[in-house]
Amino acid sequence: MESVLSFLENFFKYSTLWMILCLICTILYLDTKKNKNEGKEKYVLLKIIGFCILGFINIKINTKPTIIIPIGFIIYYLFINKKIKRNYKIKKNACILGVLVIYLGSLNSYIYKELEYRDKSIIVQTLNLKDLRKQWEDAREKLNIDIGNEVLANMEITSDRNGNIKNMSWETYDDVNNNKYEVEYNKNKKSINKLNFKVTEVENNLKNKNSDIIPNNEHKISMFEMIDKINAIQFNDMISSDCIEYKIKYKKKFKNEEYNKNNKNYYISSYDEEKYAYNLELGQKIHFPMKGNIITLSDTNSKNKELINIFIDRNEYVDNQIESIEKLNLSIENNQNSKKSTSTLHIEKDNYLLNQVVNALDYYTWEEVNKDELKGKNNLKNSIIISSGLDVNLKIYEDYEFIHYKYNNDEIIYKCNKDIYSDIKSLLKK
Q1: Where do transmembrane segments lie in this chain (predicted)?
Q2: What gap in Å lies between CA 279 and CA 249, rounded to an integer?
Q3: Please, which of 46, 196, 317, 424 could form a disulfide with 267 given CB 3.0 to 4.6 Å?
C-alpha cells in the first residue's frame, strides 16, 4: 500500500508539468477545429490562448476548503459571450478549459498535500551512532523523502555504551515551505521496531506569533551536519566507566545561562584523519563565555544531574570567542606616568586583528592559582586591559606572570608566561 501511495505522491507532485502539456495539446487541437464556413479569421490561435487565459482569472477565498470564484468566466459569460461572431464554440471551450485547469490544479494540490503530509514509517532492525549517516540515507530512500538539510531545532538520542540507539527523536524546520519534520524511533523488544516520519505545515500566523518555534539562522545547523558530528565524536571517552546508558540532546533555543562552568565543557579542537573522529578539549574558565551550538551528554541512570556540554560550532574555541565578541575594548595603562591609551576593535572591520589577539591569548598555558597571589602588589608596572560587551575583563601585567580575569561575579587569578604582555602590545602597534 505504501508503494502505491508513494507513486501517487510523485505523480501529483509533478502534476503541473503534465497539465501544461495537456493544455498545450488541447489548445492546438481547438485551433484545428475552427470553422472555415464562417469565413477566414485572423489570429485564431492567439485568440484561443487569450480566452484560455481569461478562464484562468479567479478569486480565491481562504477558507477550509478554499473557495475559488472563476471571475474570468463570469466576465466572459456576461459581457463577451454574445459579441462573438466567428468560431464561437472553440472560443467558449477555450475559456472553459481555463476554468477546468484552475479547478484541476487546486484538486491536484489538495491531493498532493494530503499525500505529502501523511505519516510514514518503516521497519528498522537496529540503529547505531557510528552508522547513523548511512542508516538515515537508507531510511530516506525507503520513506521516499528528501529530509536532512533543513535547520535542526531539537534532537534527542538515548544510546548504550556500544552506540546502539534505544530511542531517538529529531525535529527540523523548512523555512521555504513552512514545514516541520519529525523523526522518531523507539526500540521495543516485544514488537517490531519502526522509524516514524511526520511532516506538518507551520501556518504563517502561528510562525509570526510564536517565533521561538522557528529557529533563526544564527548558528544554524542541519540534521545531516549534526549526524556527521555524532558519527565523529567518541562519546565513551567522556562518560564514566559505570555508565550503561546515556542521552545526547540538542536544543536550538539554547541560552547561555543553561550551561554551568562547573560542569565538563568540551570544545572540538581538531579532526583525527586516522581515527575519523574529533579531538575534544576540556574547556577552562578562561574560555568562557562561548556561544553557538552545543550538545549535552547525560547518564540516564545517574542521580547526579551533572551534564557534559560539547561545543560543536567550530574546530577551535578561539572562533567561538571571536563569534561571541561584538566589540572589544583595549586599554594600555602606564602606571609610571599615568598615561593611558584606549582603542576599540569591532568584529566586522577588525576581525583579523581580533583573531590575532585571541590566538595570542590562547598560545600560552593558563594555570589557575590562589587569589592571594595579587595581594599587596599595588606597585605593578604597565598593564593591558581587555574587556568585551559580555562583562569579560582581562588585565595583563608587564614583567609579571599573573593575569587578573573577571567574568560577571567570577574573579580568577591565572599564572601565565609574562611574554604574553609584549605579544599583545606588539599586535596593537601594527
Answers
A1: 12-31, 43-59, 65-81, 93-112
A2: 20
A3: 317
112 and 131 belong to one structural domain: no
| Residues 6 or more apart in contact with residue 402 via CB below 8 angstroms | 369, 373, 374, 413, 414, 415, 416
> Domain end: 251, 280, 311, which one?
251
Q: Which of 285, 322, 266 is nearest to 403 (CA)?
A: 285
Domain count of the chain?
3
Whether residues 113 and 5 share a domain: the answer is yes
DSSP annotation of 175 reads T
DSSP assigned state of 149: S
Q: The dihedral of CA 189, 190, 191, 195: what is its sign?
A: negative
Confidence of residue 203 (pLDDT cuts 50, 70, 90): low
Residues 391-419: pLDDT tens digits?
Answer: 667 888 887 788 888 876 777 888 888 88
**DSSP letters spanning 213-282:** GS--STT--BHHHHHHHHHT--GGGTS-TT--EEEEEEESS--GGGS-TTSEEEEEEEEETTTTEEEEEE
Q: Is residue 278 part of a domain?
A: no
How many Cβ atoms from other residues are within 10 Å of residue 181's Cβ?
A: 20
The model's pTM: 0.59
Query: What is the C-alpha to C-alpha distance for residues 277 and 406, in angstroms, rounded to an integer?
Result: 35
Q: Which of 63, 83, 117 is the last residue of a domain?
A: 117
Per-residue pLDDT reduced to its tens digit, 271-313: 888 888 888 887 766 666 666 678 888 888 876 666 788 877 6
Extended beta strands in 128-205, E state? 151-160, 165-174, 179-186, 194-201
List the domain range (segments joined by +) for residue 171. 119-235+245-251
Q: Dihedral sign, CA of 110, 111, 116, 117?
A: positive
